Amino acid sequence: MKRLLDGLLIYARVGQKPIEQNLLDLNATMQVVESNLSQLIKEKKATIQYDKLPNIPGDDASLIQLFQNLIANAIKFHHKERTPNITITCQEKEKNFQFSFQDNGIGMEEIFFEKAFKLFGRLHTIKEYKGSGLGLALCKRVVENHGGEIWLTSKLEVGTTVNFTLRKSLN
């Protein structure tokens, strides 16, 4: 119950304060995330691959939360017959950067794509996978607060790719 309340508190706080115009090095963000998740990464023997990530304006704590949730989900929903492998890519577009977090996990059917981003939008029972159902809803809120969009593609038993955009500038 405490974890659920803590998660709701974090969710409620996202977007309450304006995003500062600080330029963030997303490579440093990834270092923090990998450190925060180091035990889980080691335990599941997960690999995370990414090229140099850009600098963007934004809220550091929110973007750490975003990246951390996406990587933790990719590890949590790994396929039992495969070691979790997460590949992060970034493409520069005219006004934003498009990120893709691709995993080789259990995947999901297209009919569940929208539900995955809903508050408490669990797709599995608590016995199957622990969690509160807040993770992707929080990710959506962080991305939208940064002026971006988030969506996913997935194939059952193959893996999922969570895509999102973040603006190059907040102006």
Keywords:
Heat Shock Protein 90, 171 residues, 7 strands, alpha+beta, two-stranded antiparallel sheet
Which secondary structure elements does this structure contain, and how are they paired or packed?
Elements: H1 2-13, E1 23-25, H2 26-36, H3 38-44, E2 47-50, E3 55-57, H4 60-76, E4 85-92, E5 96-103, H5 113-116, H6 135-145, E6 150-155, E7 159-167
Parallel strand pairs: 2-4
Antiparallel strand pairs: 1-3, 4-5, 5-7, 6-7
Helix pairs in contact: 2-4, 4-6
Tell me what the structure shows.
The protein has 171 residues and is an alpha+beta fold. It has one domain: Histidine kinase-like ATPase, C-terminal domain (Heat Shock Protein 90, 2-Layer Sandwich), CATH 3.30.565. The protein is built from six helices and seven strands, in the order αβααββαββααββ. A five-stranded mixed sheet has the order 2-4-5-7-6. It has a two-stranded antiparallel sheet with strand order 1-3. Strand 6 and strand 7 form a beta hairpin. Helix 2 crosses helix 4 and helix 4 packs antiparallel against helix 6. The chain is globular and about 45 Å long.
